[in-house]
Amino acid sequence: MTELLNDTTTDITDTQGRAYGRQPGMSDQQLMEVAAGTPMGEYLRRFWHPVAVSAEVSTTPKKVKILGEDLVLFRDGKGRVGLLYPHCMHRGTSLYYGRVEEEGIRCCYHGWLFRVNGECLDQPCEPGGGQRKEVARQPWYPTQEKYGLVFAYMGPPEKQPEMPRFAHMETLAEGEFYEVDNSGFGGYNDANAPAIVPCNWLQDFENVMDPYHVQVLHSTFSGVQFSEKFISMPKVEWSYTDTGVIYHAYRGLDNGGTLTRINSVFMPNISAVPRVDASEGQAPGLGWYVPIDEHNHTTFWVSKVTEETKGKLYRGLPMHNGKYWSELTEEERQKYPGDAEAQTGQGSQPRHSEWHLAMSDRGVSMVQRMLKNEVKKVQQGEDPIGVTFDANASAIEVKSGNYYS
Ligand code: FES
Ligand SMILES: [Fe+2]
């Protein structure tokens, strides 16, 4: 290595390592793609994904984009949720401008009325209200509601799995309820944070298996964003589980004890992150990292809370310099970066070809390897891990939590 000269210029005689002639960075498209027909897109379509917060689905149609597909979401007058291809099968205007009625959504252009399952109930311009309307079907996807969210299944009908159940979320104690958050970019519970995160879903998901950034980004670089307990560098063990990846991060405490932080992810895009204030006990919720398209995603978080803990379990406190992320100036985002800056700083897709993975990235590599393996299984006609077709299958046990010993 050459020494830098002790003045204000760089060593202009050093010819090594310069940016000139650098090859353009490439993203690993096998991991990034989400569209129908792509290997990853088909794999992801084997699972139920949250598409909206239940309470936000009403008789006013809502535009939804998921897995690269534009859709329209609404709740009909009977309370049923519909998720339809937006362009009306008659002459293609958007059902976003439709009117929701008791039995479905009526297109604004010529009034065709569609049920939540796409069946056409009325064609008012046609003789007799449409004599062949029974054969018409607006493309649709099935939905169901759970934990305060609307989930959709966008894959092959014959492979439609049961909704997964997570043991720690299934029952609510007295006074508990599900708190739902879709403020994806910048921080949980930041009412003004946009729901759309301008980077690929995998950047956010694999980040969960990166416990070292908790010490740097969240504990020292930007001050303490989560808890002072995370200031010390952990010792980490990762392992595969039946349904994903888990880590144990051990930290010595001043009193001679140990804080063990266990964090786990479930294929393809679900996390159970323990409380970030380091308080003892099992993770109180789940998070989903849902692709909008190859360059954008959103997150849905569900936590079991009480009146006392609502809004506080993850990043309930203002994140940086006493402010919520959405209140930060550009300069403050440089000074107090968080996950939003670190992940979108990678680009809307990471330049994988430029990465230099090290020992501490083992969890990220394991997530990517497992995903690629699952994608291959689906291509070969197998079912991926994490899906079940048995309505009586036992709920998935979640080990995530902060534990003191
Ligand atoms: S375009 Fe929808 S009814 Fe004609
Ligand atoms: Fe983080």
TrEMBL record:
Gene3D superfamilies: Rieske [2Fe-2S] iron-sulphur domain. It comes from the Bacteria. Residues 48-152 form the Rieske domain. Residues 1-25, 330-352 are annotated as: Disordered. Pfam families: Rieske. InterPro entries: ARHD_Rieske_2Fe_2S, Cholesterol_7-desaturase, Rieske_2Fe-2S, Rieske_2Fe-2S_sf. This is Rieske 2Fe-2S domain-containing protein. It comes from Mesopusillimonas faecipullorum.
